[in-house]
Amino acid sequence: MKFQTTSYHFDLLKDNDRVSSFFEAISQYDSSTDLAYDLGCGSGVLSYFLKDKFDEVISIEIDSDASKCASNNLEKFENVTVINEDVLNHDFTKKADLIVCEMMDTALIDEEEVQVLNHARNFLKENGEIIPKAIVNIAELVHMQRHYIHWDENASYEILSDSINYSKINMMEEINPNFEKNIEFKVNKNHIANGIKITTVTILNDDVVCGPTPMFNPPLLVPIDEINVKCNDLINVKLKYIMGQGIETIETKIL
User: Fold this and answer.
1) pLDDT value at position 88?
2) Is 155 left (phi over 0), alpha (psi -120 to 50) or beta?
3) Is the pLDDT of residue 175 over 90?
4) Last residue of a domain, one of 58, 81, 102
5) 107's torsion region: left (phi>0), alpha (psi -120 to 50) or beta?
6) Are residues 97 and 144 in the same domain?
7) Domain Methyltransferase, which positions (predicted)?
8) 51 with 78: CB under 8 angstroms?
9) Which of these, 13, 102, 121, 183, is most buried using a 10 Å CB contact count?
10) How many CB atoms lie within 10 A of CB 224?
11) Confidence band (pLDDT; 50, 70, 90) for 166?
C-alpha cells in the first residue's frame, strides 16, 4: 500500500528498524481486541498495522497535514477513525485494550509521550497494555567537539567512561516528568571530559527491543563543564531535565 505522508513522516517511514519493530510488537499482541488507541498517529502506519487485529481503532493526531494524510490512507477501513486533535484535549469516552503511542524522543525529553500517557492511561482497561512498554536510558562521559546540546548524527566525540544505565521508565506507571539524578562515571581514558552522551533503548514488549535509529531516539550529546580526567577516576554529574518540555530544560553540574 502506498502511503501519503508529510516530508517528516516520510523520513520516519524510511526507518525500517523503527517501523518493523512496532509492526512486530503489534503482531505479537495477543490479548483483548475490542479497541486500540494510536496516539500521535502521524500518517497512520501503526493504525494500519492495528486495523486487522482490533474491532475498532481510534487514531489521534494534532498536526492537521499529517492527520489529513492518515485520513486518506485509512479511509477504506471502516473500523478506523482518525481524529485531528491534541490528545490532551480529547474527550475519551471508551477504555482501550491497547494504547500505542510513538511520541518518542531520547530520554523522552523533547516529545510529549509522558504527558500524553499520564492522561490517556486513565482510559486503558484494567488488563490493558501499552506499546512501547518501557525505556532504558544510558549515559556515558565523553569529550565532544561541539560544546552545545546536539544529536550524534555526524558528530565527533570520544567516549571516556563505562556505560551507566541511569533510569528505566515503565509506561504502565504514572511518570513524573521532572527528572533529576546524580550519575557516577568510572573513567577509562585520560582526557578532558566536557559532555555526556545519552542513549535510549526502547522495550516495545517482552520480546521486541529497539535501540537508537536515525529517526528513533538518536543519542543526545549534552555539555558539562570541562574537567581533566584520568583512568579510574570517579566523576559525579547531576543530570536534570523535564520530560516533554524540550532539550532547553536540560541542566548538568559536576559534583
Assistant:
1) 96
2) beta
3) yes
4) 102
5) left
6) no
7) 38-143
8) no
9) 102
10) 20
11) very high
Chain length of the chain: 255
Under DSSP, the state recorded for 49 is H
**Global pTM?**
0.94
Q: How far is CA 236 from CA 140, 167, 168, 196, 207, in A?
A: 12, 16, 19, 11, 34
Q: Is the pLDDT of residue 20 over 90?
A: yes
**Exposure class string for 182-195: b at 16+ Cβ within 10 A, else e:** ebebebbeebebbb
Domain carrying residue 175: 134-254
185: domain CATH number is 2.70.160.11
**End position of a domain, from candidates 79, 102, 125:** 102
Looking at residue 94, which CATH number applies to its domain? 3.40.50.150
Are both 72 and 20 inside the same structural domain? yes
201: which DSSP letter? E
**How many structural domains does the chain have?**
2
Does 64 share its domain with 149?
A: no
